[in-house]
Amino acid sequence: MINLFFDQALLPAGWARDVTVSVGADGAIAHVETGSTPVGDPGEGMRRCHGIALPGLGNLHSHAHQRALAGLAERSGPGRDSFWTWREAMYRFVARLDPEGLEAIAAALYADMLEAGYTAVAEFHYLHHGPDGTPYEDRAEMARRCHAAARTAGIGMTLLPVLYRHGDFGGAAPGEGQRRFVNDAEGFAAILEAVARDLADDPDAALGIAPHSLRAVDADLIEAGRAALDRLRPGEGAPIHIHVAEQRREVDACVAWSGRRPVEWLMEHAPVDARWCLIHATHLSEAETLGLAKSGAVAGLCPTTEANLGDGLFPAEAYTGAGGRWGVGSDSHVSIDPREELRWLEYGRRLAGHARTVLAGGPDRSTGRTLWEAACAGGAQACGRPIGAIAPGRRADIVVLDPEASLLAGRDGDAILDTFVFVGGPSPVREVFVGGRGVVESGRHRDRAAIDAALRRTLERLAA
Amino acid sequence: MINLFFDQALLPAGWARDVTVSVGADGAIAHVETGSTPVGDPGEGMRRCHGIALPGLGNLHSHAHQRALAGLAERSGPGRDSFWTWREAMYRFVARLDPEGLEAIAAALYADMLEAGYTAVAEFHYLHHGPDGTPYEDRAEMARRCHAAARTAGIGMTLLPVLYRHGDFGGAAPGEGQRRFVNDAEGFAAILEAVARDLADDPDAALGIAPHSLRAVDADLIEAGRAALDRLRPGEGAPIHIHVAEQRREVDACVAWSGRRPVEWLMEHAPVDARWCLIHATHLSEAETLGLAKSGAVAGLCPTTEANLGDGLFPAEAYTGAGGRWGVGSDSHVSIDPREELRWLEYGRRLAGHARTVLAGGPDRSTGRTLWEAACAGGAQACGRPIGAIAPGRRADIVVLDPEASLLAGRDGDAILDTFVFVGGPSPVREVFVGGRGVVESGRHRDRAAIDAALRRTLERLAA
Fold first, then answer.
1. Using CA atoms, how far apart are residues A336 and A340, in angstroms rounded to an integer?
2. B246-261 per-position pLDDT tens digit
3. ipTM reported for the complex, 2 dp
4. B chain contacts of residue A407, beta-carbon cutoff 8 Å
């Protein structure tokens, strides 16, 4: 048992002072005591953190390898970059990426996430095979590299092996650029089983699946994937994530194929409930918005990526007004900063509606606190892990803000979170704990130098 | 003369390697040599910077004191039209703000700007008088504090004393909340003359004026302000900035008063040309868009503030397509990061048009480079100072990126700027020079500790 003592903390019941969080050997929170005094000798079961403790945020959508491409699809002129040329560039890069490279890129990415305040990530992992589409000898090689990177960085992980079969709506054959992603039922089951064994021993990890999109799977495949997952994790309702309605062209293609819009089709053909996370539920009709909100599923929003790719704006007021749950993901990793995701989710709605404090939580909490708490709850649900709150039974995943940061001087209560979320610039995140272990100190990942050196070697090798 | 040597630099003709920038004793660039070798002894007239040199960016719109309020307008609940709760907090704060407090807040803000890559600021300064509206004994006391803060931080400054007379369109009397802002003609002239004398000795500073808005001035006052400025700075075409069309309610009120939209009214009643900067030219008709583009004036865009306040989106494609000039400002300082301003200016248009690379410069430059270069040119024009390019005759205002930053590994040419602008997270700005003097080293302002300590003392004193 270790006791972490914080000057101030955001608990489920609200802000509290002089908070002792007792963490068991398993990394879960055993007790939380407020108005306490630090007990025990520093270094021997007691750690005094001068700072403000927030629940760590789960990043509900990541494609780790895309981090290496961030900023490389901004060409202009004739043949200027679009969503679809970006996808071509991504496919070309992917053709060279090997297991070691993926692991190095992912470890550096996860260290960046931790420094920014994400304590867990849902890795939507589709890069299964070798460059020519041949499976690695260990079919789960690439998935295992993602998990190894998470262990290296010390971030919590929900690993979502991707089920990918078709090249487009209606069961078209996959194209050459997609050959590293595609599995038949047996191949997918082999990956899932191997990963399930690995993760079983890791209290900071969980298993789910990700049918890639309505272009890549059909209703039978979704059902087969769910059944395979439930055989490995019976009774858990382990997470199912899917890309759903990112680009308008995709919505139009879905309507042309099925007569239904993507979310409408999915709600009709799959048992969408609280275990589901619909990534990029961007383009929703009013009926889809209400239906999704009522389903209990999480809308997986990725504001910086969705802006970079020109996707569109999610109808957040109508959705949250109907009780809809949501969280954020950094997706293509053009930005790794939960504060930027949250404020621009809110800002997008302000700009669309010429209003302020749109996603407001009510009289008892500010906009910044509303956004952080909702994203923590949605992130935890989408990750299928007991995170997102500083409370007994949850993982001790905690982000500590520096009260000496000049902008926080004189700030108290919700104004701390409003300043944290809405005021851009250098992050005041000073310490980060995952499962009670310190992974960020003085704003820097404990293994930053080694992780960055490995990344640099990888990028130079891949560029050569 | 000092020689600054850079591994790589963005010059007006494009990217160059092994660049020596020779800076005169006056802080202006004397020569630029490419393909050079470092000459002279380090420390004695030669400084070798391992890094990538970009022209520093001019921040064309700042209200320094608002930095202390950043993040304090996000309360929700009933009355979540939190403009009113924010106004109460702002009045309480402003009522206590004294000259020493303003200087401390401004110095810390300007240090933040320098670390982020802004090397100059246009300070739109309206907080002239004491809390009860009585002018200070030295009427220019508060303006001088802004300049003193700029000297402390070492940032270039264009000081724009604000001309503020009326409370609303049509010459309504100013309200109590505006009493610290208002001057008669003599009072304004006294401030302007005092500031003009101060700035005359500072090669890193320039003078302009800011008629506050069409609510606060009329055509005669604008003309009188211009004449007063031109008497002090004859033949220079010194800058004139004005808030113009930020909120839709403001546009409606202007039409109700005059039968004209704000930009339309201004173009008819003032000689809008290249010396003008129209701040928040957000709401433009097609005719206004083209007219403003043809005028040669700069559109002063503040994407993070305009998003925070729910103002709306500037029609950037149509405006730049017609050759319109623009720059960015951090305005209320909810964020101090030129990269966030630039990428979200572009992202706003991507989201509105479901497209990518919207503000693209053509086949010879990427989107990131287009944005940085355009904002540098517009910022220099709006500041009325020879900045914004690494070229002979310009000030030696230079931002140096860390080539060791992990994200920049393997990046070259325009991809450097695309990564810098579009990839969020910790800034790779390592060194910053203003007028040839180093003000940021290893990413940190040279006087950060002292400046932050003064800020903390001020915030604690004002909160007490």
1. 8
2. 988 899 999 999 999 9
3. 0.94
4. 70-71
